[in-house]
Amino acid sequence: MQTSIIKFVLNGELKSLEISPGTTLLEIIRDSYHLNGTKSVCNEGDCGACTVTLVEYQEDKPLFKAINSCLYPAEKIMNKHVITVEGLTCKDSELHPIQEILYNNYSTQCGFCTPGIVMSIFAYLAENSEYNEEELREALNGNLCRCTGYVHIIQGALEIINYFSEHQDKILPKKLLEGNKKLADLNKTFNLNFAEKSQGGRGVEGYYLIKSLAKYQEIIKKLKGSGTIKVVAGATDLYVVGNLRRSYFKNYLDITYIPELTTVKADDKYITIGASVTLETIRTNRLISDKLPILAEVVSQMASKQIRNIASIGGNVGNASPVGDCATSLIGLNARLILFGEDGEREVSIDQFYKGYKETVLKHHEFIKEIIIPLQDKCFYSFEKSAKRKTLDISSVCSFCYIEYDKGKMNISRFAFGGVAPYPKLALSIALELRGKSLEELDIEYLGEKVSQEFTPLSDIRGSSEYRHILIRNHVIKHLEKFKEEAMNEG
Ligand SMILES: Cc1cc2nc3c(=O)[nH]c(=O)nc-3n(C[C@H](O)[C@H](O)[C@H](O)COP(=O)(O)OP(=O)(O)OC[C@H]3O[C@@H](n4cnc5c(N)ncnc54)[C@H](O)[C@@H]3O)c2cc1C
Ligand code: FES
Ligand code: FES
Question: Domains in the chain, start-ordered, CATH in brackets?
Answer without folding.
Answer: 4-86+177-254 (3.10.20.30), 91-170 (1.10.150.120), 259-375 (3.30.465.10), 382-491 (3.30.390.50)
